Amino acid sequence: MASPPPVGTSPAAPPNYLVWAILATVLCFWPLGIASIVFSTQVNTRWATGDVQGAQASSRKAKTFAIVTAVVGMFAYVIVFVFFVFILSAGLGPATTTP
To answer: pTM of the predicted model, to two decimals?
Structure first.
């Protein structure tokens, strides 16, 4: 059985991941990044009102959306890079003429 924390101490607020959410939104994929920003801004508000579980849940969701945003954004960058390499290589190949 877990003992309660000592009187006079409170657990630390969960991280809000706001910086990561903003960076992922600006640099990677904004539709998912906006969701991450929304959840990250809910963390401190819920913590201040005493909703510890809600703050922790919003923190987890903000982190998850920031990670997914970064992964989707990086995947999109790779696809665009491959596409441009393909287009450039197709256009720079040797010219062939048909008789």
So the answer is: 0.73
The residue range of the domain holding 49 is 18-87
pLDDT digits (tens, 9 = 90+) for 47-95: 999 999 999 999 999 999 999 999 999 999 999 999 988 888 877 655 5
What is the C-alpha to C-alpha distance for residues 4 and 30, in angstroms, rounded to an integer? Answer: 41
Q: Is 60 domain-assigned?
A: yes
Say which DSSP state 23 is in.
H
| Planar angle of CA 47, 50, 56, nearest 5 degrees | 45
> Is 2 inside any structural domain?
no
Q: DSSP of 26-88, one letter per residue?
A: HHT-HHHHHHHHHHHHHHHHHHHTT-HHHHHHHHHHHHHHHHHHHHHHHHHHHHHHHHHHHHH
